[in-house]
Amino acid sequence: MVARATASQFDSGKFDIVRIPYITSSVQIRETLREASKHTCIICHTLVSPELRETLLEEAKKYNLQTVDIMGPMIRAIQSVSDLTPKLKPGLIHMLDQDYFKRVEAVEFAVKYDDGKNPWGLLKADLILVGVSRTSKTPLSMYLAHKKIKVANVPLVPEVPPPDELFQVSPQKIIGLVIDSSKLNEIRAERLKIMRLPPDANYATLNRIGDELEYAMKIMERIGCPVIDVSHKAIEETANTIMEIVFKNNR
């Protein structure tokens, strides 16, 4: 981008910009500058490895090529004002890019397989959350997705049998979520208000909630998965507990 912006200050159509990424060895530098010496050109570089920078300067001097260090002055400036030591490790920006795309992929996965959509996704998930309605399955799925974990979630409802795929997955990949019946009653009653539904709807009654929780516990016992009580936990707290369980199981 710096090279293009600079070329635009002249007649940019007269310039060819050749980009050579992922330089990791002195051999690549020598070959590149040998080829460059056959043309009228300037070498602009973002090398941070001291060894590679030294090789480039030696080869440029050998072929009488002009070089422009794009990142060096910026690194030195930041170092001088922050008193921090740069890592001087090549490829860190590519690692950041990979992390970003992994997060995006995990978020897309959470959306695609939210609330029991498409049970095939259960077989591809890193983690599956199961529980009755309003146990924070969706917000937890999204929170964990930003930690690059592909999460699917399945609501447990007495009238709807769980998908067969749920029982084909290792119990270590499944987390059950339960909640105090009184707390769930408050949450669901508030939900009914927001939806402008009658407050005495079966969805929020203690009898219905008790039946759902009992059914959910039977499914979780059948699976043999860890169970977390989310009654008085924030999303972050529950997510940290889940990640601890996942880390322990993967050791």
Structural summary, described in words:
The longest helix has 21 residues, at 92-112. The protein is an alpha/beta fold and 251 residues long. The chain has helices spanning 2-7, 26-36, 50-63, 72-82, 92-112, 137-145, 181-194, 206-223, 235-250; strands at 42-45, 66-69, 127-131, 151-155, 174-178, 227-229. α7 packs across α8. The chain is elongated. It is built from 9 helices and 6 strands. The protein folds into 2 domains: 2-90, no CATH class; 93-250, Rossmann fold (3-Layer(aba) Sandwich), CATH 3.40.50. The strands form 2 sheets. Strands 4-3-5-6 form a 4-stranded parallel β-sheet, sandwiched between helices. The model has no long low-confidence stretch (mean pLDDT 92).
Enumerate the spans where pLDDT stays under 50 for 5 or more consecutive residues: none
**Overall CATH class of the largest domain:** Alpha Beta
Instruction: Tell me the overall shape.
Output: elongated
Q: Mean pLDDT, nearest integer?
A: 92
Provide the CATH topology of the largest domain. Rossmann fold
Largest sheet: 4 strands, parallel
Quaternary structure annotation? single chain
Q: Beta-sheet strand percentage?
A: 5-15%
Provide the spatial order of strands within the biggest beta sheet.
4-3-5-6
Note the run of SSEs as H and E: HHEHEHHEHEEHHEH
Rg of Cα set: 28 Å
Number of structural domains: 2
Question: What CATH architecture of the largest domain do you see?
Answer: 3-Layer(aba) Sandwich
- Number of alpha- plus pi-helical segments: 9
The beta-strand count equals 6
For the record, give the distance between the C-alpha atoms at the N and C termini, rounded to a whole number.
43 Å
Approximately how much helix is present in the residues?
A: 40-55%
Query: Which class of secondary structure composition applies to the elements?
Result: alpha/beta
